[in-house]
């Protein structure tokens, strides 16, 4: 029995290691291992342990054609568990799990998939072209590190856009591998809007497209006749990351909504740390153009209603985010060797960070009039930090925040 259990352990595979992706532009890409990219997570597909049972030397290859996102699946392994030897326990049905969780049908015939690549040239992105821009990137085919120019196009779509729903059904599968707590959206709701980012390139003299990333935005109602767009999901696919495309995609969304008069502000649903940094960078670059955010105003006036107004009217930035941008841009002007200036900045930010704690203390003081001394003592012991604990926690929060701000500042200084 022990040997059987040991053998079973050898048949438990890390699903993050087993799964690999490729975006296929031409048939030769099938055998080009440099195009492989891996999932960041797989618990939303294979469960909390992120494992697949029943195989040795397992490889789950999920390929998509780069434009139309036609999916191909190949599952290879050297050994598969025999239920007769494991108390009728069967290997995980990988194809079944992927089909159920991703809600798409896979082609498992490689020849058919390769033949379908001929239709890629006919693909045209759905929706309305909003922006075209170029980036400079190192040419992978150059031996001397030559720089090439790459062209990208951003498209705006609604649920009624021809071809969008079926295309999005394939595209959205990526979020389960890269965004924690992700879920598919209800595309029957016309308040959903879509921004699709494509690379536009030439191959054999033909103009082609490759999907690079996308974002979904939900347009909430805001009294009395306004809308408040909320960015729900945004993903730049791994082969296109670290090239400034996340900032370009977010800027494109901003540029679309800033022209709509009844948009109050643009919000973000549960932003990850990485997304928040992109947001901070884009908002800082924008606000650096505004009069109220110039260095002299940051120090002479502090955080003012004029900053809130100008950020909201020009870039649809809400008050909370405007305050954050103010703090980042102000830190950028701090000369840390100037101890008084640096201390003044830290005190200002810590005062803002301490507001929730101060509010709780004020609420407790109001309640004390209705409580006995023993009840007050018990509540303070259970929920109220000592002065030492509070100051230590506040200092830790500040240091973490400054570290994040510094990363945004470094990116601003690089560009």
TrEMBL record:
It catalyses: L-lysyl-[protein] + acetyl-CoA = N(6)-acetyl-L-lysyl-[protein] + CoA + H(+). Keywords: Acyltransferase, Nucleus, Transferase. GO terms for cellular component: chromosome, telomeric region; nucleus. Pfam families: HAT1_C, Hat1_N. Residues 218-220 are annotated as: Interaction with histone H4 N-terminus. PANTHER family: HISTONE ACETYLTRANSFERASE TYPE B CATALYTIC SUBUNIT. This is Histone acetyltransferase type B catalytic subunit. It comes from Menopon gallinae (poultry shaft louse).
């Amino acid at each position: 029995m022990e040997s059987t259990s040991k053998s079973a352990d050898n048949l438990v595979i890390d699903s993050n290691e087993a799964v690999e992706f490729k975006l296929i532009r031409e048939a030769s890409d099938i055998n080009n291992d440099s195009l492989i990219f891996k999932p960041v997570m797989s618990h939303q597909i294979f469960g909390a342990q992120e494992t697949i049972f029943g195989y040795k030397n397992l490889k789950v290859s999920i390929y998509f054609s780069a434009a139309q996102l036609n999916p191909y699946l190949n599952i290879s392994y050297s050994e598969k568990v025999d239920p007769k030897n494991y108390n009728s326990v069967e290997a995980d049905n990988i194809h079944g799990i992927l089909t159920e969780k991703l809600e798409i049908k896979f082609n498992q015939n490689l020849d058919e998939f390769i033949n379908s690549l001929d239709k890629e040239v006919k693909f045209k992105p759905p929706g309305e072209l909003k922006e075209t821009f170029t980036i400079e990137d190192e040419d992978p085919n150059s031996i001397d590190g030559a720089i090439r120019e790459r062209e990208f196009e951003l498209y705006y779509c609604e649920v009624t856009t021809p071809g969008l729903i079926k295309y999005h059904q394939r595209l959205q599968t990526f979020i389960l591998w890269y965004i924690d707590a992700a879920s598919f959206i209800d595309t029957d709701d016309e308040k959903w809007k879509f921004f699709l980012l494509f690379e536009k390139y030439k191959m054999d003299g033909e103009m082609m497209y490759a999907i690079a990333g996308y974002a979904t935005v939900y347009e909430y109602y805001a009294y009395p006749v306004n809308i408040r767009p909320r960015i729900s999901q945004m993903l730049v696919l791994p082969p296109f990351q670290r090239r400034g495309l996340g900032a370009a995609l977010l800027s494109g969304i901003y540029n679309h909504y800033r022209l709509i008069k009844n948009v109050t502000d643009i919000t973000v649903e549960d932003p990850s740390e990485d997304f928040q940094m992109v947001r901070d960078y884009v908002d800082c670059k924008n606000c650096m153009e505004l009069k109220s955010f110039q260095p002299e105003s940051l120090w002479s006036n502090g955080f003012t209603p004029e900053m809130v107004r100008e950020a909201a009217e020009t870039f649809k930035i809400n008050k909370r985010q405007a305050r954050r941008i103010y703090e980042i841009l102000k830190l950028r002007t701090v000369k840390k060797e100037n101890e008084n200036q640096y201390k003044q900045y830290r005190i200002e930010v810590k005062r803002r960070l301490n507001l929730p704690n101060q509010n709780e203390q004020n609420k407790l003081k109001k309640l004390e009039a209705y409580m006995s001394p023993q009840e007050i003592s018990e509540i303070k012991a259970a929920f109220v930090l000592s002065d030492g604990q509070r100051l230590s926690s506040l200092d830790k929060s500040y240091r973490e925040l400054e570290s994040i701000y510094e990363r945004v500042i470094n990116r601003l200084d690089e560009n």
